[in-house]
User: What shape does this take?
Amino acid sequence: MNLDLMRELSVSTDSKIVLLVLDGLGGLPNADGRTELEAANAPNLDRLAAEGDLGLSRPVAAGVSPGSGPGHLALFGYDPIEYLVGRGVLSALGIGFGLGENDLAARINFATKDESGRISDRRAGRIPTEDASKLVDLLNENVKLDGVEVSIRHEKEHRAVVVFSAEGLSDALSDSDPQRTGLEPLPVEPENDAAEKSAKLANEFVAEADRILADEHPANTVLLRGFGMHPALPSFQDTYKLDAAAIATYPMYKGLARLAGMDVLKEGGPDFAGELETLKQSWDAHDFFFVHVKATDAAGEDGDAGRKSSVIEGVDALLPDLLDLGPDVLAVTGDHATPAKMLSHSWHGVPFLLHSPYTLPTAESFGERTCAGGSLGMFPGEEIMGLLMGHALKLNRYGA
Amino acid sequence: MNLDLMRELSVSTDSKIVLLVLDGLGGLPNADGRTELEAANAPNLDRLAAEGDLGLSRPVAAGVSPGSGPGHLALFGYDPIEYLVGRGVLSALGIGFGLGENDLAARINFATKDESGRISDRRAGRIPTEDASKLVDLLNENVKLDGVEVSIRHEKEHRAVVVFSAEGLSDALSDSDPQRTGLEPLPVEPENDAAEKSAKLANEFVAEADRILADEHPANTVLLRGFGMHPALPSFQDTYKLDAAAIATYPMYKGLARLAGMDVLKEGGPDFAGELETLKQSWDAHDFFFVHVKATDAAGEDGDAGRKSSVIEGVDALLPDLLDLGPDVLAVTGDHATPAKMLSHSWHGVPFLLHSPYTLPTAESFGERTCAGGSLGMFPGEEIMGLLMGHALKLNRYGA
Assistant: This one.
C-alpha cells in the first residue's frame, strides 16, 4: 500500500468503518475435511459473505508465517517488512508498557552465571514469578546509568523487559544472549556507528545488573535480546484522516494500535460481548474501529479445532448487535492463519470478508475456499486499508 | 510493468493485436442481481470468453478510483503513479490541443473580481460559451509575455486552457484559485527552485489577463489551476517495437494515445461501427490497435444500467466484423469500472478478456464474476501490455 497515495486521496467523512479481527482466523482442513471457519455454524457471517466481497489476504510474503506485530501492521496498511516492530517493543507492548519515540526496549532473561563467567542456565531455573518480580524491583531501585532513564518491568517467570529512554538511541544492536550454556555472555555490539552509544549503554546496564545481583541465586545475571525501538509509523490520522479507536483485551494489541496512533478504548469486559458494549458506547466518537478477538488464535495454538469453531460461532451470534449500529463498511478477517492442525501461526491466506453497499458477491458462505474464489482473489494484507477506505467513499478519485 | 524488461525482450513481428477498451466497463450487481455486463445479451463476447483467458484488472491501487488518465496509462503499460498526467494536460488533450515536451498546460476559469480585489464569482456567472469564446480571442491577441509562446483555447462556458511553450518549464506549481469566494486570488507559488521561472510566468499571465479584461463584466479575471506538463512517456515504438494506432472519437483519448506515441487515426464515424470501418481501412498499416468506446462510461455515469448493457450489446453485434480481420490477439476490457449504481468511476476490478490461440479457458461467459474466477485472477492493469505481447509471440524468452 502506498501510504503517500492514501495521504493524498483520503478525506474525512461521516461514514464509519469496523475492522473486526479474529486473531489467527485462517485454518486448514481438519479430520472432517473442513477448516475451523468452514465447520463453524455461523449464519450471520454467511449472510454477510453472500452480500459481500471475499478474498484471501497474505500478511507478509509467500510461505512466511507472520508474528502478531507484522500481521497487525499489514492490517493497518503498513508494509510489515519496511516497518519492523522489534521483539523487545512487542514484549513491552505486551505488558502494557507504552513506548515513546526515544525509547529503546529489549527483552531480559534472568540467567545463572558460574564462577568462570560462563552461563550455566539461560533461564535461571525458570525462576518463579514472585522471586523474579522482587529482582525486578531490586534492579529498578539500584540501577544507575548516566544520562538515561531505565525502567524494568517483569513479564513472567525469568522474563522481563527493559526500556532505556534518551535522545539518540538506536536498536541496531546484537544480543548478549550466547544462545547456549557453557559460553560467556556476549557483549552487545553496535551494527553501525549510530548505535555505539546504545551498545555502551546496554553493556553498562548488564554490568550494573551483575553488580546488583551478585549475591542472588540462581538469577545472578541478565541476558539481553530483541532490541527494538518505536517504529514511528505514519499515523492513521495523518494518513487516512481517520479518528480511529481500538477495542482489545490484550495489552499487545492495544499497544500495536497505539503505535498507529489509534485511541485505545477501555474494554467493557474480557470477551467479545464486553468489547461490543464498548463499541456501542463509543460509536459516535470515532469513524474507524479496530476490534480484536484473541480466543480464535489461542484455540488454534492449542490445536483445538472444535474450540476455535465455537469461538467463531460465539462472535457470529453477537454480530446482529454490531450490525444494528449501522457500520458503512464492516470487514471480518484475521491477522494471520493459525490452523489447529499446525498448533501455530502459518503463512496461509487469511479469509477476508468485506461488507458494504458496493460489493460483488460470489458465494453463499464465509470460508477459506469461498474466499479463494472471491472477487478480491489473493491479495497483500496491506491493501486492506485501501479497500476499507474506498468502500467507505473516503478516497478522492486519482487523477482526472 | 517493467518497461525496461519489455524494451529488452520485445520484437517486431507480423502478428496483430487489438485492445478494445469499453470505457468504464466494470460494474456491480443491479436490482436484478446482475451487473451491466452480466445482463447484456452478448453471445460473441461470451464465445470469446469461453475460448479465452479471463481476469480482473486493477488500474491503480486497492480502493482507488482512477480518472481516465491513470486508467489509460495503466492499460498502455505505464505505472499510473509514476507517470501522472496533470489535469491541465488532460484538459488540453480533451480539446484536441497537442502538447509537446516543452509545454506547460493549466486550466483557466474565467471569474469575477470585485473592487476590493476579492473573487466574488469563481465562474463569472457561468458565462455563456459564445461570450467566453470572444474573451479567449481577446487574450490570444493581446497577451504578451517575454520568451514564451502562450496559447489559450476555449473549453466550455467559463472554462478554458492555457499552454505556455518554452524551455525549462515545470508543473510544480500551486493553483491561483482560492477555492472560495470572498478571498483574493492566490499567487502561483513554485514547489521547488526549478519551478520559479514557471511561477513567475504564470503570475505575469494573470496580470496580463487582468489588464486585458479590466473593462469586461462579469469575466474580469482568470483563475489558474491543475498545472501539468507532458509526462514524457517512453514510446510504444521504443518499448514494444509496435507500430501502434489509436481509434477514438473523443479528443482526450486520442490525446492519451498520442502521449504514448501512437498514431491517431481519423475515425470513420461517431460510433463503434464507424471506428470498425477505420480499423478495416488501416488494418495493413499497423500491428497494434487501441480502439476506444466511450458510451459505456457515459451510461454508467448516468446511472443507466440498461443503456450500458445496450451499448455492450451493440459492440457485441459488430464483433464478427472485427474478428473477420483475423487479429492474433484481441483483448476486451475497460480503463476502470463505472458501476451504474454508483454513477461514477470506481475502484473495482475491471473485467478483462484475452482471446488468442494460447489461452486457458475457465468459463462460458464474459462477466465480472467469471473474470474473478478466471485464469488471470486479479492483476495490476499495467500488466496487460505484457500479456498482449506474450500472446502475440512478440516477446523473446527471458534468460537461457
Notes: The interface with chain B takes residues 1-2, 5, 9, 358-362, 373-379, 383-391, 395, 397-400 of chain A (CB under 8 Å). Chain A has 14 helices and 13 strands. Chain A has a mean pLDDT of 95. Residues 3-84+233-391 of chain A form a domain with the Alkaline Phosphatase, subunit A fold (CATH 3.40.720.10).
